[in-house]
Amino acid sequence: MTTAELGLAALDIDRPDNNDLTLWSVTTIIGVLDKPALLYWAAEQTANAAIDSAATWQAMLEEQGRDETVKWLRDARFRKPKTALSDTDLGTVVHKVCESYALTGEKPSREFAAELVGGLGGPQVEMDTELNLVGVMLNRFDDWLQRFSPSYQATEVCVYNPSYGYAGTADAFLTIDGVRFIADYKTTRNAYDSKGLRRTPYPEQVGLQLAAYRYAEFAAVWRPRRFEKFRRRYYVLSPAERDLAVPVPEVDSGLVIHITPESCESYPLDCGQEAYRAFLYTLEAFRWVQETSKTVMGDPLS
Q1: Which InterPro entries did the record assign (predicted)?
Q2: How far apart, in Å, are the Cα atoms of 86 and each of 42, 182, 192?
Q3: Which one of 15, 28, 140, 173 is most buried, counting C-beta atoms within 10 A?
Q4: How far is Cα 239 from Cα 242, in angstroms, rounded to an integer?
Q5: How far apart are CA 89 and CA 72, in angstroms?
Q6: Cα–Cα–Cα angle for 243, 248, 251, nearest 5°?
Q7: Residue 118 burial (CB < 10 Å; 0-12/13-18/19+)?
Q8: What angle (nearest 5°) sits at the alpha carbon of residue 134, between those of residues 205 and 105?
Q9: Coil, strand or helix: which one is 135?
């Protein structure tokens, strides 16, 4: 299981072992922040389900009643599209093909991408449509590589901070013109929002994310393990793994690489101590919501 290589894809497991330390995922922690855009997106998914599946929910209303129908519409945001990749799955595919290209210098084959798309999208996905989209986004990433000629030191680096109880995976450590970056990929299939404005990454989220990774205590040289429970992600760490750990590579700045079908742009991010302090405040807010708040209220007065 162990190797001396920095940057190995995480292994998804069902549950931790008895001697494992369980750590919150950085992205799960940041989920405690208010996200107005996500609220709008969730409402939009419900509206789409109401319009696109009118016959389904009307039949459900007659057969199962109002409560079950409302629940089905409410949970539309959790259902994957039938014929297209979800935004998350598209990001995963684009991330993997771009990472492969950056490390090997050769564009992944159509078969490689098709296996990823089929594995995440299922048998009903419109394979040609999604593969063409992935190919276009890979070409935009290729344009970016030609413009900036980054030198990659490592990708998919899992970092841990047991002192604060968190872990996560940094997409890449790379250098451009002598500047050392810790980088994160962000993707979207729609380059413009509903107002016709070009979409950009959310600095209030990715800034905290990169700061948390940058100032983690050490990095993995083994295949990391993680699991999900109640839509929250956790990483696990054994004593043997901790003994093998190495320092997190030093960087000068953060970088978010934003890939759409129309462009690939990279935005420098100040992920220094100020951003890290903000992340630690966010961590405590998450801890309050998930743990401490559940202990502060007593029984009703009598």
Answers
A1: PDDEXK_AddAB-type, Restrct_endonuc-II-like
A2: 13, 26, 17
A3: 173
A4: 5
A5: 22
A6: 170
A7: middle
A8: 90
A9: helix
Q: How many CB atoms lie within 10 A of CB 249?
A: 17
H or E stretch at 40: helix 36-52
**Tens of each residue's pLDDT in the chain, 302 residues:** 333 478 888 999 999 999 999 999 999 999 999 877 778 878 888 998 899 889 999 999 999 999 999 999 999 888 888 889 999 999 999 999 999 999 899 999 999 999 999 999 999 999 999 999 999 999 999 999 999 999 999 999 999 999 999 999 999 999 999 999 999 999 999 988 878 889 999 999 999 999 999 999 999 999 999 999 988 999 999 999 999 999 999 999 999 999 999 999 999 999 999 999 999 999 999 999 999 999 999 999 99
Collapse the DSSP code of 7 into the 3-class scheme (helix H, G, I; strand E, B; otherwise coil) and give the result.
coil
CB count in 10 Å sphere of residue 206: 21
DSSP 176-224: ETTEEEEEEEEE-S-SB-TTSPBP---HHHHHHHHHHHHT-SEE-SB--
Pairing between strand 151-161 and 253-259? unpaired
Q: Which of 119, 168, 117 is nearest to 138 (CA)?
A: 117
Bridge partner residues of 48 (DSSP): none
Full-prediction pTM beyond 0.85? yes
SS3 46: helix
Cα–Cα distance for residue pair 203/275, rounded to 1 Å: 10
Give CA 151 to chain center in angstroms: 23
